[in-house]
Amino acid sequence: MAPTTRSTSSAAPAAGGSINTSDFLNTAINTDPRTQAEGLPSKLPGSLQGVTELLTGRKNFERWHLWVETSLRPLSLYQLLQKDLPRPQIDDPSYNLWHRLSSIICAWLLKQLSPEISERFVRAEGGREFADNAYKTICKIALGEELIKVINTCIKLVSESRNNYSTIAQYINSFMNTFTTAQRIRCKMPAFMATCILLSNLETELPTWTTPIRIALPLANPDTLTNTDFYKYCDEAIATGNGLDAKHLAASAPIIQASAAPRDIKSDHWKKRTFPEPGISPEDHVAKMRNQQPQQLDRKCAYCHIGGHGSLVYYHLNPSLRPPHWKPTRGL
Q1: Which residue, among 77, 78, 75, 84, has the nearest Cα to 65 in the 3D structure?
Q2: Rounded-to-10 torsion of CA 108, 109, 112, 115
Q3: Closest Cα to residue 281, out of 271, 289, 273, 291?
Q4: Which residues lie in Low complexity bias regions (predicted)?
Q5: Average pLDDT over the chain, rounded to whole?
Q6: CB-based contact 316:261 (threshold 8 Å)
Q7: pLDDT confidence tier of residue 11, bands split at 50, 70 and 90
Q8: Would you state the pLDDT for residue 251?
Q9: What are phi and psi of 307, to 5 degrees?
Q10: Are 18 and 47 in contact (CB under 8 A)?
């Protein structure tokens, strides 16, 4: 019996039929759109072919994405899925065209999903009216929240900036938390790299702290710098930054002169609010008054009712900040 010869061609026909491209023959393809509306076609073909295989999950997502892209990009429609491209404003001349095409491609996307993915899409949160939101939701469903979290964590590790936080401690704590999360979800960043990013973000504010550490970094053997070393540097930077922040607050607080006693400082209301409760030690009471929230009421200190400072930097409550030759206000 002669051996059976197996054909090397196994391409399956597309599910949706052919595309009428006559309306697009004279339409230039925009290969680098700056917005979702830029370069959109004014007409759609009579039918938009479906992909070869419905999306079933992570296993066939890469193939499915390729089919979606190759179906939409030649028609200058793929930018409708790109969340990083801005949508047109409602007063933009191209807004109505974008609105109509994005809604149509959104409906087309939903027809490219398996029944299971479709059901999960219906239950998922997020916008469904336009193509970019629908595509983002589909990716989350197919790839899983864990993979999306890995991607977002990696991006946050390298993009997080000191400028996004009001204090040094807030930035460092956020960066440490992201670094720790990365270790747990298996997108580990080397401690050496994390330390370099930390130093780069703090060198302007803490040059005397960052410079010797940068000089001492093990450039020849970066792997010898451990996570413990990184966390130690973070703790040191927080302590140094807290001291710097306290000095800034103290410098902005006016020196209270002996004759500047507020008129209501001896009122019964003030005594009830600021005097220690029975059984509480003076130290604990001072700490409570110093750290009360909010620090100010109507732009006046929540403790003494004098403007220009908060209770945290009030010299009566925080002796470490008192300038030389300072004298307490009479009556306190």
Answers
A1: 78
A2: -110
A3: 289
A4: 1-18
A5: 77
A6: no
A7: very low
A8: 54
A9: -75, 165
A10: yes
